[in-house]
Amino acid sequence: MASTDIYATAKSNLRDNVKTLIAIFGGIAGLLLAGTPFSGYGALQALSERWWVASIALFLAVVFVGLAIRLLLRLLQPDLVYSNALRQHLDLGQFEHDDRDEIEALRKEFVASRNDLLPSGLSWLDELEALADAAYGQWQIALAIVRSAGAPADAAKLLEAERKAFEDLNDSLTAINQWAAFVRQRYRIIRGCNKAFLLGLAALCAIGTFSWAVGQKNGEKKETAAQLAHVIVVGGTAATPVQPGTAVPLLNAILFETGRSNLSAEGIAEVAKARDFLHTHPDTVVLLFAYTDTRGDAKLNRALATRRAQVVKNVLMVEGGISASRIFVAELPQIDLPLLTGHAANSEKNRSVQLVLLPLPPSGVTSGNGK
User: Fold this and answer.
1) Which one-letter DSSP state was computed for residue 341?
2) What sign does the dihedral 202-204-206-209 (CA atoms) show?
3) Nearest to residue 38, comparing CAs of 49, 54, 50?
4) Total count of domains within the chain
């Protein structure tokens, strides 16, 4: 008798698709609970007119994702299909609403495919069950004849034929039940995934609304951002100072030899200019941008850019007496280079540390005139 479920692989593939969707929605839930969207949640009070929009949108996003995950988890529950679902006369009122929809869809599929599922001349499963019951009775009769005294010579052959006839019909019943379980599972997963897709779209819309509401605070700070535009000196070029008359030294880039991080005499002189200005202007900070050219291994260049920035920083701190809180470092090996070059290009200008002096605004500045 056949016992292997020929639809086992197909069922497993359907369940794997559901598991993939659960992982996707789980990732979205992770972003909601610990990622970027929540980074703006603490600033909602600054959104005097839109904080409630962001709060509602965030709440709805969490609800939609939670409902989608719950729905997908239910799809992984095992499905059972009872024989009465495919019998000719069935009272659908005994089933729950969701089960009723699935069984109605299953019966329609069965009617469309029963010529391939049932033996010739049969229309419903109860007819096949009646034949199987009759075959079982014939098998038992043949078995009794074989065991009786004076059994005919061909009794064993008759018994084998009756047994095979019953097992063939029983195998057909088993195959139909396996087919029905697969069809019901497929219908449930397709319908459930469509609902989960709609919930996912709703969650993304809610996340987008939340991001839009939180992002409104950026427009409110444009004026303040403009007030923070002060003197910036990069490679000897000075911007217009916020306070007229402020003398900003012209700083040249500090150049390095290939693969080296030690300062030359010219480099030390540039660091000294930055140190002197920082001493005389305590409300000023310095930014260090460390670069390499495009030759060599990327990992080695990152380490080289770090060493070059650290050398300049150490000179400012140890010999110049500048606090570490006034020195900011950006290591940019092979990216955002002062001189744009191709790959593996030898460029002295890119083997450098650029110094940026940035006077900070006085405390309490709220308007363009500094008052």
Assistant:
1) -
2) negative
3) 54
4) 2
pLDDT digits (tens, 9 = 90+) for 47-79: 446 677 878 888 888 899 889 888 888 888 766
Q: What is the distance between the alpha carbons of residues 224 and 319, in angstroms, rounded to a whole number?
A: 35
Q: Is residue 179 domain-shared with residue 250, that is, in the same domain?
A: no
CA atoms of 135 and 155, how far apart (whole Å): 16
Look at residues 1, 57, 69, 2 and name the one whose alpha carbon lies nearest to residue 29. Answer: 69
pLDDT band at 239 (very low <50, low <70, confident <90, very high): very low
- The domain of 101 spans 8-220
Same domain (yes/no): 66, 204? yes
Of 220, 254, 287, which closes a domain?
220
From residue 4, give the alpha-carbon distance in Å to each of 7, 9, 175: 9, 11, 9
Q: What is the CATH number of the domain that holds 352?
A: 3.30.1330.60
Q: What order do you get walking across the sheet with 352-359 strand by strand?
A: 254-255, 352-359, 284-290, 327-331
**Domain assignment present for 124:** yes
Q: Which of 257, 265, 258, 259 is nearest to 315 (CA)?
A: 265
pLDDT digits (tens, 9 = 90+) for 310-324: 999 999 988 888 988
38 and 160 co-located in one domain:
yes
Q: Which residues pair with 330 in a beta bridge?
A: 289
Write out the two tokens for 290: 């460390």
Measured CA angle at 105 (ends 104, 109), to 5 deg: 115
Predicted TM-score of the model (pTM):
0.49
Query: How many Cα atoms are found within 13 Å in the side-chain-facing hemisphere of 147?
Result: 6
Q: Cα angle vertex 320, ends 319, 323, to 5°? A: 115
